[in-house]
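Propose amino acids for all 129 sites.
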């Protein structure tokens, strides 16, 4: 059972199921927090290894390939493996956000010169889906 941890007020560190995460407030309004040690080096290496053969050219929200976004990426399925479930649950507890309200865990890969140009994510008022 995970212990839920509220992100506000921001603490200098959080312990989630024995995993220590450090937080640094970079800006108060709007609130910008830098977290360190959210994933261990072993977890990062495992994610990289598991995603290598699944990376595909990144697309825009409308599924079009564009020069705006030139990286490669992939999404893991929710609870796809014990590792993915552990990471998702840790982030959920840290952010105090239920998994049902979160996007899937994504890995992006950028070669030198690749980019994701600045953009705005929003919903049109007449179509919030």
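Proposal:
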């Amino acid at each position: 059972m995970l212990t839920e941890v509220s992100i506000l007020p921001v603490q200098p560190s959080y312990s989630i199921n024995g995993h220590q995460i450090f937080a640094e407030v970079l800006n108060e309004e709007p609130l910008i927090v830098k977290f360190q040690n959210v994933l261990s080096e072993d977890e990062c290496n495992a994610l990289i290894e598991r995603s290598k053969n699944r990376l595909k050219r990144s697309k825009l929200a409308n599924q079009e390939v564009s020069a705006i976004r030139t990286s490669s990426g992939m999404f893991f399925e929710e609870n796809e493996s014990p590792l993915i479930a552990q990471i998702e649950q840790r982030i959920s507890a840290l952010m105090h956000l239920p998994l049902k309200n979160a996007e899937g865990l994504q890995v992006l890969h950028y070669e030198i010169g690749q980019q994701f140009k600045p953009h705005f994510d929003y919903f049109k008022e007449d179509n919030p889906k």
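The mean pLDDT is 88. The radius of gyration is 17 Å.
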